[in-house]
Write the structure tokens for this entry.
Amino acid sequence: MNTFKKIIVLSGFIFACICAEAQHNVENIFRNYGKRKGSTFIDLGKAVLGSHTKISRYKSLIFPADTALVNVIANEIKMSYRETLMESMKDGQFETGYYYVKMPNSSEYAYILFTNKSQLITLVYIFGTFPPDKLNNELNKLKDLFITVNDKQIKL
Amino acid sequence: MIRNYTIGELIDKYFEGLTSLEEEQELRDYFQQENVPEAYGVYKSIFQYFTSERRQEKQKITVTAPKKMRILLRWTSLAAACLLLFFCLWSFLHTENTLPNTSVAYIDGKKCTDMELIQQEASRSLANVSDGNKEACSAQIGILDIIMNN
């Protein structure tokens, strides 16, 4: 194997490792804060998502956090999910952010939606085969799904 | 041994395949000498040939062994790298993004499988991030309005 091929293989390997590591960083937030007192962690299964949307994974976490923790988590997300769809700051603090990362050699995307209101962080992890410009459509489909699944109107 | 046999006897024994390794070595050493009787001249060239062949074989072994080791090491490291890559990709694809069969919620650290509650909480999380988006858009529009008016 010549040097050029070695470099290509090594680069691919490092890239795949970085992507996997990035995913694990955010996964760790869900793991660490998901089961704490005051937190609400949701992991939707096949029965809910099924084939109704292109979202193949939906996880959400709502938990209380002080200013320092908000900054730590926001930075962690921004380091792992390098593409920014939308971001807003208030009083020098991250308030809302939509970030994503495209999976290597596939049409799949991983999204993380972050919001911080009154020291309460909401994180939503979405994985699916749709590009960023279709994210709102898929979120709307999901909202509709929640309304019809239990034959119960849920105001959003 | 040379002392117990004459060279002629030892040569006969050698060609009958009855010599020990030690005796064969003694024969090779004997025929390395300069002064070998003419009667054994023909054997001298044969044994010298065997001796030189043995030396070359030894050299081949010493040269090829590290090369084989290097090839083996290269393939082993390649296999290890592939395994590691496979493990990383597998954990990345399966741990993170494999859809669970049933929905699960943890509220205040307690596991909950009530579908109605799970969907209400999922809706709440969606509403939180959607509101944030709307507020950010409104703020941007407000800023743009101010800029336009100025």
Residues 102-149 of chain B form one domain.
